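Entry for adenosine-5'-diphosphate complex. Fields follow.
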Amino acid sequence: MSPITPDSPPNVATMSSIRLIGLLHGLFAKLGQRGDLEGALSQVLGELAEFLEADGGFLLSAADLSNLRLLAESGAPFQEEAMDKDQLHEFYNEIFREHRPTIIRTSRPEPMSLVGVPLVSDGRLIGGMCFFRSERKGLFTYEDTPLLGIVALPMAIHLENLEYARSNAARRAELEAIVASMVDGLLKVDSWGLIVSFNDAFRNLCGLPDAEFYTLYWDDLLKASDRHAELFADFNRALREGLPFTARCPATIQQGDREIPVSVNFTTIVEGSGRITGGVLSVRDVTIETQIDRMKDEFIATVSHELKTPITTISGFLEMMITRPMERQEQLPLLELIHSETARLGRLINDMLDLSKIQSNRLSLDLKRFRMDALIKGCLKPFEMRHKSTHHFALSVEPARAMVHADPDRLSQVLVNFISNAVKYSPEGGTINLVARRTEDAWRVEVKDQGIGIPSDALPHVFDRFYRVNENQTAGSGLGLYICKEIIHRHGGQIGARSEVNQGSTFWFSLPLQTKDAKAAKPAKQGSRALRNHAIRQAER
Ligand code: ADP
């Protein structure tokens, strides 16, 4: 072979070899690049088509012969529909089933020549690469196939990379969507504990501008109690020394001037090679859970106290009556006290039962028609008798003998609760006014006292479960008004209160004249949501 020098013009064979090497070099370089994988495919196809003087070329994926998918094309579009189906099937069969380079001649849509090679990587068929040109330009020959064979391997690897990049991108998008939609805060840190990324929930928990996060270590934001300080240090050590670590502990996050209780899960990130590259912290806001726990504790303490007090009184008086000889006259006041304390116990137990019915949606109504004035008078009478020396009572019902359609026992329960609160939270000498008015479409009943009143910030919460304006005030469980609200809502009515501190309070409810049938009266949705709402409000106070 004669050496190629600048002076000696290369012969035709050398020229085409140089062109071929140049072409392959260019193609391999394009297929090896990392950036625009799809763009590289089209470019390579275009250059090969040009070299082969083809009218066009295309790449098909080969997941399933009956479902070939076009991955890229270059030059004129391939008119597959116009071709002879059997011939085309035979062509694809050779490439995708037999994995053989193939050349065919077709007469439709014009006399054409087609060449195709399978793209195989590591024994796996990835796809097929095909070119076509009109017969005018000459038929493809098997001399064309070695070139395509040489390009087929890097092309197959490139396609695999593309598939991998696409599925990676899809998986990444999926993961990003999951992380973004998470209610828990998520925080990724490097092996020094510096914050690398975080989701919206964590951003909201801390309430800091984005730029500030990236200058912070995770433990600048999360604070451990003394009991868990050691665990924080262990996680940092695991990150630095590349040791696996998983743990969970309570902590707090400072959000402005609020300290938020959180529960933190620590995990180190282990790469495929087993190397630890950083850590992930998932951070859950447990304000509501903490609040609910506190409310439950308070409730148990209140109820235990409420149960214990009457039992102590009853057993004390009974003991006195058993151990000391007494005249009937002497016994009477003690028996009255025992009677009222037993009634108090009964009320508390009934409230607890009602609470459980409300929670399991079993509080039903037994609707009847009865006179409103009779019901109110019946409720008021025991109070007038018991408190005639300390309180004045006034009653006005209009129209006097008008009927109401409701559950009389449940309505009495509401009235008794209103009146007993009015007495309980009023000083001696005060007047308690009961007013019932029937308008065109509803009954409205009010119980007005001249008592201690309720501060405006507490007023919206008095109908919440377990809520008491002052935990140390007179006996009570904080359940009465909550149950009243449920009863009135189940009648389709409304309930509310107005109040002014040291001036008095007015508790009212309204009932539509056409109360629905008990079965149809849909119980308002209750349960954990009401408790959570209450806890949120408590937490915000
Ligand atoms: P309790 O068993 O504590 O009385 P309730 O649910 O009946 O429970 O009432 C809730 C809270 O609302 C009470 O603890 C009290 O602080 C306040 N409250 C209710 N009625 C009155 C009233 N007439 N005057 C002042 N405060 C009241």
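NOTE: The chain has a mean pLDDT of 86.
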